[in-house]
Design brief:
The complex is a heterodimer of chains A (about 1000) and B (about 60).
Chain A (H helix, E strand, L loop, with lengths): L4 H24 L4 H4 L2 H7 L6 H14 L5 H11 L5 H10 L5 H9 L2 H33 L10 H23 L10 H30 L2 H10 L1 H7 L5 H17 L1 H9 L4 H19 L2 H11 L8 H9 L2 H35 L13 H27 L5 H12 L3 H9 L5 H25 L9 H5 L6 H23 L4 H10 L8 E2 L7 H12 L1 H15 L8 H19 L1 H11 L10 E2 L1 H10 L6 H19 L3 E5 L5 E4 L1 H7 L3 H4 L11 H10 L4 E8 L5 E10 L11 E7 L1 H46 L3 H29 L9 E6 H13 L8 E4 L6 E4 L1 H18 L5 E9 L2 E8 L29 H11 L3 E5 L10 E8 L7 E2 L1
Parallel strand pairs in A: 9-11
Antiparallel strand pairs in A: 1-2, 3-4, 3-7, 5-6, 6-7, 8-10, 8-15, 11-12, 12-14, 13-14
Helix pairs in contact in A: 1-9, 1-10, 3-10, 3-15, 4-16, 4-18, 5-13, 5-15, 7-8, 8-9, 8-18, 8-19, 8-20, 8-22, 9-18, 9-19, 10-16, 10-18, 13-20, 13-24, 14-18, 16-17, 17-18, 18-19, 22-24, 26-27, 27-28, 28-29, 35-36, 37-38, 38-39
Chain B lengths: L4 H21 L8 H17 L8
Classes of the chains: A alpha+beta (about 1000), B mainly alpha (about 60).
Chain lengths: ~1000, ~60
């Protein structure tokens, strides 16, 4: 049965329109995302690998080489089953750095636009046979359906015209499909869904053919088995062994094709949104290919049984013709058409991206108009390149004049792309490989392939190795094809290794190699940027991209990173820079993107730029957690344990880089400051809200490594106290800057407790003084009572006046005693607030001595105040009084009845040294370290609280002073004790608030 | 570098026993679809291998 040419072309247009409708519906969301983004859709889209070679060429392979046709599938299956070896590392690279093609990956890894250009050029040349294969398969199919036969007698001119018509139609659809999205970083939902749909159509068509072969040609499964038994030589032919080297070479070629073929690379990596989908493809794609390969043998046998005169590639069409069945003919045609159209569309789309990113843009062949949207210009450029590529494929097809079978063309193309395998393997596995080695290897391998395989059929150059492919695959023939394939690969890999070892690898290549390498965890460097906020990024990129594009790219990157436009954290800006480079890489290719970013957003040279980016390292380690095994996993667990320990410590810890970047901020720090780690990590110290910016900044700039106490005002107005300690981390080898670690301790509770203790001690002192006070007040009151009694009977006015003066004198005495007591009891009224004012030292000591002498029960020790009456210290007089009462009281207790407590002072520039010296029993040296501790006392129970000296120490610290103990001060039975207090020298008119 | 060690072991075993497996699979004395059974086994193994749910590690 035959069809008119118009019918066939109309059928093609209708089919491709249907396909486009699927893409359109998926893009518009009419086909729901749960379908278009389902892992199964992704897996089916990978079926693009099965081009016309899978629907037609493989039948010829099965006919000639039996089970060896399975090698075509097994190569791909092996690559996907072992996805962790190459596919997942590549996917990681492609996703993180927005690489969408093999040329992107290689130029990113080898940091060379030359590598990208060479890869693109080589890829275009190696894929010409593949494009010609697809065109030939469809053109031949149209030719057969139109009632012609293929072969020397057929009209070559008419076939070329049909091919041209098909090329025009497919060009239109390729442009429609390929230029809907400009950036390669966005998943093209419509395209993926349409290709997945094509894979289903292809599979359904092949199953229709299988059913037709089994039931229509043979009459059933049993009959087919019977026919096989009758034709035992056919069954035996299945196990016809291919020459060992050829089988291995074929397997290797198809294994490499799974990752080197640009159409499969594009679908597997550029259109992937979730690594889980690729993991599912490790069994999903093998399942699909198994189903697709199942019909091959029945169709081949049906072709043999029918004994048609068409090439075996077109057994499906021959079956339709022999059975006079429209569905069978249509299924055979649709299988080939869907396979070929999907391959052409995706291959030209991927190649067009590569050409634009690695040939057109870097070489400035096209001048980008900065005034217009770059996206629109890129869209037109891509349309043009797609047209050129399909035209090139058609020209190659014309040049071949239909002399080669589909299998031959397929093998030439696959062997060509095999040359990219060494470079691709070196990307994650061999950091020493460099661009010179890669280019040398590519040149060597491709030249061998060019002269050994590609040129012979196109130029007539001898020996025609291509024409001997089929013979070389046979066990009894020479293996010329194998020789050329393996020689080109060996030559390629050898040159790559040799040149890489003999030549120097540049620093940027080493960094890229480290990023790509999965053996070593990348050690990102923390470098400083000259730009201070995200808004400056747009302005800096504008000269290269145009204002509109620059603004839109920066906004998109900010959105993806969930940063605000006001972002100014150095860590965030570094991430923004990396994201922009990745996004631009998806738009313009990695080489151009890297150049633009380096030029427009450079790092500051040498400024604190050598320390490691801790955040990024931690992020990478957290993500790679499950990948770590053995010692690495142990180390990671240890890291987590230490991190958690630091995080949960009840003391605040923050770490500041030499450039002022906050590197650590634990939970306690967040509790103390009320600032969450997420808000502060990676930002500059200066961006901390007040008062923390001032407190930590001043402490870092200061000379002291410890700040015992500083007051912080809470938002609610309540005061709190913190102590700060710092240490500087040791500089690492090769590092020029070190981080500073600051410990922040909240001592508010301790301070409040201390206040309370101070109050208690004061009350205790008052209690101790109470008896003396009562006695002291009692005497003048008795005197007043006597004078009052006498006054009642006295009539002499002069005597009355005299007695009244005496009464007033006695009441003055009482008033003074009461005032002293009241003053002392008011010591703690301003809790926590130390007000340093100029205070007369001698007066203060006198007051203390006076209070102590009120205690009549105490020993009559002699106090002598030898201080200069004019000497003024800067202190809180009330607290200083407490200090003297405690110290003089202790001195008195240590002395016997003949004790003598002497107080004198000396000045030393800005300081006053006040010495309190007694001739008491002294303090043994072994107790010196304990006497200032709270609750430590040598007195009998009930006589001392053990808080006196502790409070002295605390109060002197509060007043910027110090206290020193010396004992013994003399030999003999009364060695004595000397306390030396040091306070700032004061003068009237100076006030200082703490 | 994370390569599934079980996978490496399987690849090694398959390489060692490849001649035996190939001989068994393509023998003309048996059903023509026998190689597909082996293929099915590979699919089951691949499915088993990826069952562990990983987060999107990229």
């Amino acid at each position: 049965m035959s069809f008119s040419l118009t019918q066939i072309l109309l059928f093609i247009v209708v089919y491709l329109s249907g396909l486009f409708a699927v893409a359109y519906l998926a893009d518009r969301g009419i086909i729901p995302e749960r379908i278009s983004r389902h892992p199964a859709t992704y897996v089916l889209s990978l079926g693009v690998f099965a081009g016309a070679l899978a629907t037609n060429g493989v039948i010829e392979l099965a006919y000639r080489y039996g089970y060896n046709f399975l090698l075509y599938y097994i190569g791909v299956v092996a690559m996907f089953v072992m996805a962790t070896v190459l596919l997942l590392p590549l996917l990681r690279l492609c996703r993180v750095y927005q690489l969408s093609s093999l040329a992107d990956v290689l130029s990113f890894r080898f940091r060379s636009s030359w590598v990208g250009a060479a890869t693109t050029l080589a890829m275009c040349i190696t894929l010409l046979p593949l494009l010609a294969l697809q065109i030939q398969a469809v053109a031949d199919s149209i030719h057969i359906l139109a009632g012609e036969t293929i072969g020397p007698s057929s009209s070559g001119e008419r076939q070329d015209r049909l091919a041209l018509l098909f090329c025009i139609i497919i060009t239109v659809f390729s442009i429609l499909f390929g230029t809907r999205h400009v950036s390669t970083q966005d998943r093209n939902n419509g395209l993926v869904t349409a290709i997945a749909f094509e894979s289903l159509v292809k599979l359904a068509a092949m199953f229709v053919l299988m059913l037709a072969a089994i039931f229509a040609v043979f009459g059933g499964i049993a009959e087919m088995d019977q026919w096989l038994l009758q034709n035992a030589e056919l069954h035996r032919a299945l196990e016809r062994p291919m020459q060992g080297d050829s089988a291995r070479a074929l397997l290797l070629v198809f294994f490499a094709g799974a990752v080197c073929m640009p159409h499969l690379f594009h679908m597997a990596f550029a259109e992937n949104t979730d690594s889980g989908h690729l993991r599912k493809a490790t069994w999903g794609l093998p399942t699909y290919l198994l189903l697709l390969s199942l019909p091959i043998l029945p169709i081949t046998w049906a072709g043999i049984k029918l004994g048609h005169d068409l090439p075996m590639d077109y057994s499906g069409l021959a079956m339709g013709s022999a059975l006079h069945s429209f569905p069978v003919s249509a299924a055979a045609f649709v299988a080939g058409l869907s396979a070929a159209s999907a391959t052409i569309i995706i291959t030209t789309l991927a190649l067009a991206n590569m050409c634009i990113n690695h040939l057109v843009l870097p070489s400035r062949l096209l001048k980008i108009d900065r005034e217009q949207s770059i996206y629109k210009q890129l869209k037109w450029l891509r349309r043009f390149v797609i047209s050129i590529l399909i035209l090139a494929g058609y020209t190659f097809f014309i040049t071949l004049s239909g002399k080669q079978s589909l299998t031959q063309l397929g093998l030439v193309a696959f062997t060509g792309t095999l040359q990219f395998l060494p470079g691709l393997i070196a990307t994650p596995y061999w950091p020493k490989a460099n661009r010179k080695g890669l280019l040398a290897g590519l040149c060597g391998g491709l030249l061998t392939w060019l002269f050994g395989m590609l040129l012979p059929p196109t130029t007539g150059y001898q020996p025609l190795i291509l024409l001997q492919i089929q013979n070389s695959l046979l066990p009894d023939s020479g293996s010329l094809w194998t020789t050329v394939a393996m020689a080109s690969l060996t030559f390629n890999a050898g040159l790559l290794i040799l040149v890489s070892l003999l030549t120097r690898t540049r620093a940027d290549e080493k960094i890229a190699a480290e990023i790509c390498s999965m053996d070593d965890l990348a050690r990102p460097i923390r470098q400083s940027l000259s730009l201070r906020n995200a808004q400056q990024f747009s302005a800096s990129l504008a000269p290269a991209l145009g204002e509109k594009t620059a603004r839109s790219e920066v906004q998109r990157a900010l959105l993806e990173l969930r940063f605000s436009e006001q972002e100014n954290r150095p860590y965030a800006l570094r991430r923004l820079r990396a994201r922009l480079e990745a996004n631009l890489s998806g738009l313009l290719g990695p080489a151009v993107a890297h150049g633009i970013i380096e030029r427009c957003i450079p790092f500051l040279p040498g400024a604190h730029g050598e320390t490691e980016d801790i955040h990024l390292i931690e992020r990478n380690l957290d993500r790679a957690n499950y990948q770590l095994t053995g010692l690495a996993a142990d180390l990671d667990n240890l890291r987590r344990h230490h991190r958690e320990t630091l995080d949960k410590l009840p003391i605040g810890i923050c770490s500041v880089g030499a450039d002022g970047e906050m590197l650590m901020w634990n939970r306690s720090m967040a509790q103390i400051t009320g600032i969450q780690p997420s808000a502060v990590l990676g930002s500059l110290l200066t961006s901390l809200p007040q008062p923390w910016d001032g407190i930590i900044g001043d402490f870092l700039r200061g000379a002291a490594d410890t700040l015992l106490k500083t007051e912080v005002a809470n938002d609610d107005g309540a005061a709190r106290w913190i102590s700060l300690h710092r240490t500087t981390a040791e500089e690492n080898a090769g590092s020029t800057s070190a981080d500073t670690i600051i410990l922040v301790e909240d001592i508010t509770e301790f301070e409040l407790l201390e206040e309370e203790l101070l109050h208690n001690e004061r009350l205790a002192s008052i209690g101790r003084l109470a008896a003396g006070v009562a006695h002291e007040i009692g005497n003048p009151v008795t005197g007043i009572a006597c004078l009052a009694q006498n006054l009642e009977y006295e009539e002499d006015p002069e005597e009355i006046h005299y007695m009244a003066r005496d009464i007033l004198k006695q009441t003055d005495r009482v008033t003074r005693i009461v005032e002293s007591l009241v003053n002392f009891s008011h010591l703690g009224s301003g809790a926590g607030e130390t007000r340093l004012t100029p205070s007369n030292l001698a007066d203060c000591i006198d007051e203390a001595v006076h209070l102590l002498t009120l205690d009549q029960a105490a020993k009559p020790v002699q106090f002598s105040n030898e201080c200069d009456r004019e000497l003024v210290v800067l202190a809180d007089s009330q607290r200083l009084l407490q200090v003297f009462i405690n110290l003089l009281g202790n001195a008195r207790d240590a002395c016997d009845e003949f004790g003598h407590v002497r107080v004198y002072a000396t000045t030393d520039e800005q300081l006053v040294n006040i010495v309190l010296e007694d001739n008491g029993c002294g303090i043994p040296p072994q107790l010196h370290s304990q006497v200032f501790e709270p609750f430590y006392t040598t007195k009998d129970p009930g006589e001392g609280t053990g808080l006196g000296l502790a409070l002295v120490f605390s109060i002197m610290g509060d007043m910027n002073g110090s206290v020193q103990l010396t004992s013994p001060v003399a030999d003999g039975p009364n060695p004595g004790t000397r306390f030396t207090l040091q306070l700032p020298l004061g003068s009237y008119g100076s006030t200082f608030d703490m | 570098m994370y390569i599934n060690r079980a996978l490496l072991l399987v690849v090694g075993v398959v390489l060692i026993f490849f001649p035996v497996i190939e001989g068994w699979a393509v023998s003309s004395e048996t059903a023509w679809y026998r190689p597909y059974l082996l293929w099915l086994l590979v699919i089951v193994a691949a499915y088993w291998n990826q069952r562990t749910r990983y987060p999107d590690e990229l």
